[in-house]
Design a protein that fits this description.
The complex is a heterotrimer of chains A (192), B (651) and C (101). Chain A has 192 residues and is mostly helical. In chain A, 62% of the residues lie in helices and 0% in strands. Chain A contains six helices and no strands. In chain A, helix 2 packs antiparallel against helix 3 (48-73). Chain B is mostly helical and 651 residues long. Chain B has three domains: 1-64 and 73-130; 131-457 and 476-567, no CATH class; 575-648. Chain B is built from 28 helices and two strands. Chain B has a two-stranded antiparallel ribbon. In chain B, a hairpin with a 2-residue loop joins strand 1 (60-68) and strand 2 (71-77). In chain B, helix 4 packs antiparallel against helix 21 (472-487) and helix 19 runs antiparallel to helix 20. Chain C has a single domain, classed as Helix Hairpins. Chain C has helices at 5-25, 29-54, 58-87. Chain C starts with a helix and ends in a 14-residue tail after the last helix. Classes of the chains: A mainly alpha (192), B mainly alpha (651), C mainly alpha (101). Chains A and C meet through helix 1, helix 2, helix 3, helix 4 and helix 5 of A and helix 1, helix 2 and helix 3 of C.
Chain lengths: 192, 651, 101
């Protein structure tokens, strides 16, 4: 229980930090902490393989990708300087909807009766629930089709990324940049 | 019942003529006249051949179609409609031929004959229908034909106003008939004459009177009875053949036809009889009084028409049906003769209609003088002429049915008729020709309004009118009409055993006079005395040699001293104007100024503005900002969450 | 399990709605993408919790697939950010509003 509470607090705190940090690099670090706490939580839930995958893929690859892109963008002058805020006062409605949704889920959960099943066998044994062997068996037999499709999705993603962003030849003259659009005055109200 | 397809031919040939002349008028040009006349003459001959069939039993029938089991439309030619059909097609044919001469040179020559043929068709629909609804259809079409023909010279604003007036007043009458038809259908459930008259007992006395009243309102409007008579003098704006055919011989007698046809209804309601007889007598008197004050030759004849129709209505109203129909018959001939004769005068004087500017035409136009004299003698009821027989029959019939007051009014009117008809005759034909006199010397204040009906009169170089058409086209029909004008009254010689009485005995039955009436000889003598008195007064004022010498100052004096009640026709027009026309115009103006822009247009504008506003509202959602769309997604998710908690979680 | 199932789900819900607010309230697209990663992870937590609750492998498989797809999506999202940066000198989702109207 203590472990759970501690981990939960870390997760929530780091999530908040991610969302509210000023610089993107800070956000990446916050997210990293979040992912690690999440991985440890998976361990408490008998999902060892997934915990490792979480760290390896998410923190190890995706976050690094984020860092690379931040580095790429930081090569420009003041890239992250925010322009005029075209949606001021948006925080209140967003928080409201979030709270409503959260309350709804809480109520729904509280009305459901859960009886957790027992796990047979010690953690770490082969073929026990959550082990690599168990996971592998399920992945390559029952869920083979989703596995192949996911592979296809990844391939499409790679091709897409290359097509989208990978074509700038060095030495070309700088392209014409689009300036910021000024905020237009509010449209005249039409009397109903 | 045997069908007579010849009735269809009689009925539809004029319609075919109307459509043909409408469609191909410009191509047919002067052929329109003979074609139109032929297409009216053939039905006349066809109706003659059906004489035998029409006078046996209930006449010749032709079913058209059955709209509902109880509503069967058809044509019938029985004794009453036979008389009317003969007049419509016969006199109509003569007037068509006359019009070929009268309207020669008109720009829209064919249009005139198309309208005339259409009128013949409409009138035949009215008299040949064997049911109320068919008759009502003919009634309305006749009103339309009248509108078209009165407004024939549509470039003339007074003609347009007169045609509108005639049509609107006719519509008022249509409403009365419509109401009566509704009551009939509601009570009896059928529209055929035979079916309705067989079940008269189903009406209560109040309903029967209501039906008769409704029908009579229609008759009053169509036959120009007081107070719906104001359109008839103005209807003289139409060409003279139109006045002769429609507003003398046929259309205005539609009311008489209706009452004669619905004789069983009137036989059953004595209140209706009193009403109709009274109005008829009142109209006869009013028309005669007003006729004494007119200076336009066509208006004199118009008011005399109104007065004579008053006689007819009085006759059929009190129950003397064959007397009323006989007067219709004789009136058709002598009034048509009078109008056509007046038309010859007008045509030859380049559309001059004011009698004050005539005079001395006895030597200039002897044939017209002869025709008009014969017509006047007939209308006054001089013994021996046809008008004498019919007028006497009406007056005696009124007295025999027990209405002495109406009889007295009728007798008085006979005297007045003699006065104003001879006045017209003397002022127009005797003395010296006054056409070259300065109009103001005769008291005319607006000489340019002195009765030019034809807007093309100004571009007439030779002041003798259009002398292109052969004169026999115009004088031939008039000469032909002289014969029945004199002689046809002799059909009634002999009272009940006369040919006329026997002709209608199967329809109207025998009749016992009310006790206490004067003998026929005495009444005839009283009437003759009054006619002689009227003639004498007219002679003293206008006809004696001294009066003829002083014609100009006498006419001026009379013009100046005419009471304004007479010149304004007893203020009927002013009253109708104040009571109905001005409030209607005010109401229309109110709607046009206030309701239309501020209520209706505002509503439409509001609809468009709301649509506009709604569009702007939805457009404001399309910001293009990703975050806004994300917010919308979150909102949708929250809604779903609420739904599933409140509604779905229960399951 | 260290805590009842409801607790894990509540935590996942909290993480989810932090992510939603992050997507709406931040203008930097990179931060928005990271918030989206938070959303994925909260879903994964829920999946794994239920997998443990019913001792069913399917939850793990599904979470695995979610991670894969999240990776692909993050890659493409970052590629789009790079392209936008090439066209404009700034990185602000509010400026990329050409769907306006």
């Amino acid at each position: 229980m203590i472990a759970f509470i501690a981990l939960s607090l870390v997760m929530i705190a780091s999530a908040l930090f991610t969302v509210t940090a000023k610089k993107p690099v800070y956000s990446v670090v916050g997210l990293l902490v979040n992912f690690i706490a999440l991985a440890i939580t998976y361990l408490t839930l008998h999902a060892e393989f997934l915990a490792v995958i979480q760290i390896v893929v998410y923190s190890g690859a995706i976050l690094i990708l984020f860092v690379f892109v931040i580095a790429l963008l930081s090569s420009g002058t003041k890239p992250f300087e925010p322009g005029p805020n075209r949606m001021p006062r948006v925080l209140a409605p967003a928080l409201l909807f979030g709270v409503i949704g959260f309350v709804a889920i809480a109520i729904a959960i509280s009305k459901t009766v859960f009886t957790p099943a027992a796990i047979v066998g010690a953690t770490g044994d082969a073929n026990v629930f959550g082990s690599v062997a168990d996971f592998g068996t399920a992945l390559f037999t029952t869920n083979l089709l989703p596995f192949e499709v996911t592979a296809f999705v990844l391939m499409v993603a790679i091709i897409g990324v290359v097509l989208l962003a990978g074509d700038e030849a060095p030495g070309r003259r700088a392209p014409k940049r689009i300036a910021r659009e000024p905020i237009s005055p509010p449209r005249e109200r039409i009397a109903p | 019942m045997q069908d007579y397809p010849l009735l269809l031919l009689i009925w539809l040939l004029p319609l075919f003529g109307a459509v043909l002349l409408w469609a191909f008028g410009p191509q047919l040009k002067t052929w329109a006249g003979p074609i139109g006349s032929a297409l009216v003459g053939v039905p006349f001959i066809a109706a003659l051949t059906l004489w035998g069939a029409a006078t046996t039993g209930t006449g010749a029938h032709q079913t058209l179609f059955a709209w509902l089991p109880q509503f069967v439309f058809g044509l019938q030619l029985d004794r009453i409609s036979l008389v009317w059909t003969m007049i419509i097609t016969g006199v109509g044919f003569l007037i068509h031929v006359y019009s070929i001469g009268y309207m020669a040179g008109e720009k829209a020559f064919a249009r005139f004959f198309a309208y005339l043929n259409f009128f013949i068709f409409a009138m035949l629909t009215l008299v040949l229908s064997d049911n109320f609804v068919g008759m009502l259809v003919g009634w309305g079409l006749v009103g339309l034909a009248s509108y078209l023909l009165i407004g024939y010279y549509f470039e003339r604003p007074t003609a347009v106003a007169a045609s509108k007036k005639a049509f609107v007043i006719n519509v008022v009458g249509d409403i009365g008939i419509l109401y009566a038809v509704f009551v009939i259908v509601a009570k009896i459930g059928a529209i055929g004459y035979g079916d309705v008259f067989a079940h008269i007992a189903k009406f209560s006395p109040g309903e029967l009177f209501a039906v008769c009243l409704g029908l009579f309102i229609g008759c009053a409007a169509k036959s120009a009875q007081v107070p719906l008579h104001t359109w008839l003098p103005d209807a003289m704006e139409g060409p003279t053949p139109v006045s002769a055919l429609i507003h003398a011989a046929t259309m205005v007698t539609a009311g008489v036809y209706l009452i004669a046809r619905c004789a069983p209804l009137w036989n059953a309601s004595s209140d209706a009889r009193v009403l109709v007889g009274s109005i008829g007598a009142l109209t006869a008197l009013t028309g005669a009084i007003l006729g004494c004050a007119q200076w336009d030759i066509k208006r004199i004849l118009a008011y005399s028409t109104m007065s004579q129709i008053g006689y007819m209505i009085m006759g059929v109203g009190v129950g003397a049906y064959d007397a009323g129909i006989l007067h219709f018959l004789t009136h058709a001939f002598f009034k048509a003769q009078l109008f056509l004769g007046a038309g010859i005068i007008i045509h030859n004087l380049a559309n001059q209609q004011d009698v004050r500017l005539m005079g001395g035409l006895r030597k200039k136009m002897p044939f017209a003088f002869a025709a008009m004299t014969i017509g006047v003698l007939s209308i006054c009821g001089i013994p021996g002429f046809s008008g004498y027989f019919s007028k006497d029959a009406v007056l005696n019939g009124t007295l025999a049915h027990g209405h002495p007051v109406m009889w007295a009014v009728g007798v008085l009117t006979a005297g007045l008729t003699a006065y104003y008809m001879f006045r017209m005759l003397f002022v127009t034909f005797l003395g010296a020709y006054r056409g070259d006199v300065d109009p103001s010397e005769l008291g005319l204040r607006h000489p340019e309004l002195a009765g030019t009906a034809n807007p093309h009169a100004a571009d007439d170089e030779h002041g003798h009118g259009h002398a292109h058409a052969p004169a026999w086209l115009m004088s031939g029909p008039v000469a032909l009409l002289m014969i029945p004008t004199v002689l046809i009254g002799w059909l009634d010689f002999g009272g009940e055993s006369s040919p006329w009485g026997q002709f209608f005995a199967p329809v109207f039955g025998k009749f016992e006079p009310v006790a206490g009436t004067l003998p026929d000889g005495l009444t005839g003598l009283i009437v003759f005395v009054l006619i002689a008195a009227g003639f004498t007064v007219a002679y003293m004022r206008y006809g004696n040699p001294q009066a003829l010498l002083d014609a100009i100052p006498r006419l001026r004096a009379e013009t100046v001293r005419m009471p304004s009640a007479l010149t304004h026709a007893f203020y009927f027009d002013a009253a109708i104007d104040a009571l109905f026309v001005k409030p209607s115009i005010a109401l229309g103006g109110f709607f046009s100024r206030v309701i239309d822009p501020h209520v209706i247009d505002a509503g439409v504008r509001e609809a468009s503005i709301s649509a506009n506003w709604l569009g702007h509202l939805f457009r404001s959602f399309q910001t293009g900002l990703v975050r806004a769309y994300a917010l919308a997604l979150a909102f949708g998710a929250a809604c779903f969450a609420i739904y599933y908690v409140w509604i779905g979680a229960g399951r | 399990m260290n805590a009842p199932v409801e607790a894990y789900i509540i935590v996942a819900a909290i993480l989810f709605f932090i992510g939603v607010v992050g997507v709406i309230a931040r203008r930097n697209p990179l931060i928005q993408l990271m918030s989206i990663e938070l959303l994925f992870n909260s879903a994964n937590l829920a999946l794994v919790t239920f997998a443990r609750s019913w001792a069913n492998n399917a939850g793990h498989i599904f979470a695995f697939l979610v991670i894969t797809v999240a990776a692909a999506e993050a890659a493409i999202g970052l590629a789009i950010v790079v392209i936008v940066f090439r066209k404009t000198t700034f990185v602000d989702v509010d400026e990329v509003a050409t769907l306006k109207g």
